[in-house]
């Protein structure tokens, strides 16, 4: 086994780790270690791929909004829009979401123009916002990987980290036959971030992976919904989104689980499809595919970005929850500024809301 030394070693080849690698590689020697044989195999490859800037806690919204320009410049955004669907008895939750997402209320007729298969006997109210955009998440991940590699980063797949020790330089990290010495270790291991902390003898933060399931069903015959907005029920009860001629439908489940290669089950998928169909004039004949991914949350729901208070050479880039794609550019810039010691773009209050020290 030969030792390889870098300034910064990043654990995790999802959007979090790869975007930070792209930001740091022009300024430092960087390596990324990823368990799987491909990047983005877990949460980053399973998302609904939406950019909705007003989704999340205030610090997440700040990251989302600060990410918009970079996502535009990477040419990964395209029009989508988002529509809120309220039924009888849902007024309070509907109005809450209308405010949170700064949506305009439409007439049911206008709602039907966007989604012609809405059932007017069931749907009472419709909210709409055209600022939500689709993200080409694969292009985003690959574009950060390309930037990182061009700037000299090594991105190594099929390298599960199994041991982390303190060394005279900082850290000695073992992944199979690879051993890397690094001054700074960045924990971008998604659902496994607390496990990485335990391996490094760092106090875990209580990150909770939550399973979310997705079904892909055929689009309704005779209707072209390809340009239709994503739709969701008040309080994020369920959602559906056009996807290349088909529809993605989710029960918006948030089942707490241990980190693993997530999969869904028939009952959860049936629940999501039933919730969707309850609002539509059409039913679904068949399932094209189904999957699940883990959305991992810190106890307060904010991302965790920054140096560990007890071991400053250990940097957290975790707790991306359901916002990791849309917040990635600003989150990566923030982590890079902390590692490089440059002044962060975020306010002191936002920085504190994201810092791991808030748990100590
Ligand atoms: C169904 C669903 C819908 C979503 N919709 C959206 C959306 O519309 N918009 C949005 O912005 N976000 C969305 N998200 C959230 C987003 O996908 C995540 O926040 C984001 O992908 C998290 O990225 P990550 O890099 O932290 O985690 P991951 O992509 O899971 O990457 C972490 C990586 O670390 C690796 N790793 C773990 N342990 C080790 C180890 N010991 N050694 C080496 N590597 C290791 C794993 O193999 C994994 O590849 C959604 C998520 C799901 C599941």
Supply the CATH architecture of the largest domain: 3-Layer(bba) Sandwich
Radius of gyration: 21 Å
Continuous helix count: 9
The total count of strands amounts to 20
Helical content stands at 25-40%
Cofactors, ions and other ligands in the entry:
flavin-adenine dinucleotide
Total of domains: 2
- Structural class by SSE content: alpha+beta
**How far apart lie the N and C ends?**
37 Å
CATH class of the largest domain: Alpha Beta
* Fourth-level CATH superfamily of the largest domain: FAD/NAD(P)-binding domain
Helix and strand arrangement:
Elements: E1 3-11, H1 15-24, E2 30-33, E3 50-51, H2 58-73, E4 77-79, E5 82-87, H3 91-100, E6 104-106, H4 108-114, E7 123-129, E8 133-135, H5 137-150, E9 154-156, E10 163-166, E11 171-175, E12 178-187, H6 193-199, E13 208-218, E14 230-232, E15 239-243, E16 246-250, E17 255-256, H7 266-277, E18 289-297, E19 304-307, E20 314-318, H8 328-340, H9 348-354
Parallel strand pairs: 1-2, 1-12, 2-9, 5-14, 12-20
Antiparallel strand pairs: 3-8, 4-8, 5-7, 6-7, 10-11, 11-12, 13-16, 13-17, 13-18, 14-15, 15-16, 19-20
The chain binds flavin-adenine dinucleotide.
Description of the molecule:
The structure is a single chain. The chain has 360 residues and is an alpha+beta fold. The protein has 2 domains: 3-48 and 137-206 and 299-359, FAD/NAD(P)-binding domain (3-Layer(bba) Sandwich); 82-129 and 208-297, D-Amino Acid Oxidase, subunit A, domain 2 (D-Amino Acid Oxidase, Chain A, domain 2), CATH 3.30.9.10. The chain is built from 9 helices and 20 strands. It has helices at 15-24, 58-73, 91-100, 108-114, 137-150, 193-199, 266-277, 328-340, 348-354, and strands at residues 3-11, 30-33, 50-51, 77-79, 82-87, 104-106, 123-129, 133-135, 154-156, 163-166, 171-175, 178-187, 208-218, 230-232, 239-243, 246-250, 255-256, 289-297, 304-307, 314-318. Strands 5, 6, 7, 13, 14, 15, 16, 17 and 18 form a 9-stranded mixed beta sheet that branches. α1 (15-24) packs parallel to α5 (137-150), α1 (15-24) crosses α8 and α2 crosses α8. The structure holds flavin-adenine dinucleotide. Flavin-adenine dinucleotide binds next to α1, β13 and β18.
């Amino acid at each position: 086994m030969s030792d390889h030394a870098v300034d910064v070693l990043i654990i995790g080849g999802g959007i979090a780790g790869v975007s930070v690698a792209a930001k740091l590689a022009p300024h430092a020697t960087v390596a990324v270690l990823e368990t799987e044989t491909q990047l983005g195999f877990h949460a980053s490859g399973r998302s609904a791929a939406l950019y909705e800037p007003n989704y999340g806690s205030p610090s997440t919204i700040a990251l989302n909004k600060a990410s918009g320009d970079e996502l535009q410049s990477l040419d990964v955004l395209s029009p989508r829009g988002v529509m809120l669907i309220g039924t009888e008895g849902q007024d309070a939750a509907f109005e809450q979401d209308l405010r949170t997402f700064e949506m305009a209320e439409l007439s049911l007729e206008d709602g039907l123009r966007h989604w012609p298969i809405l059932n007017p006997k069931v749907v009472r109210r419709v909210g709409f916002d055209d600022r939500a955009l689709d993200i080409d998440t694969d292009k985003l991940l690959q574009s950060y990987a390309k930037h990182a590699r061009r700037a000299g980063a090594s991105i190594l797949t099929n390298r599960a980290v199994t041991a982390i020790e303190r060394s005279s330089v900082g850290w000695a990290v073992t992944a199979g036959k690879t051993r890397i010495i690094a001054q700074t270790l960045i924990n971008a291991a998604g659902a496994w971030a607390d496990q990485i902390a335990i391996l490094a003898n760092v106090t875990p933060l209580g990150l909770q992976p939550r399973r979310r399931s997705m079904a892909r069903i055929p689009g309704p015959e005779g209707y072209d919904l390809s340009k239709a907005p994503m739709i969701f029920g008040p309080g994020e009860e369920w959602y559906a989104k056009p996807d290349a001629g088909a529809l993605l439908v989710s029960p918006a489940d948030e089942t707490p689980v241990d980190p693993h290669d997530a999969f869904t089950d028939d009952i959860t998928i049936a629940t999501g499809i039933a919730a969707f169909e309850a609002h539509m004039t059409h039913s679904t004949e068949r399932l094209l595919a189904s999957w699940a991914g883990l959305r991992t949350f810190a106890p307060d729901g904010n991302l965790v970005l920054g140096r560990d208070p007890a071991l400053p050479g250990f940097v957290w880039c975790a707790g991306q929850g359901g916002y990791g794609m849309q917040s990635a550019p600003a989150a990566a810039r923030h982590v890079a500024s902390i590692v490089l010691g440059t002044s962060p773009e975020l306010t002191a209050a936002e920085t504190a809301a994201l810092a791991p020290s808030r748990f100590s």
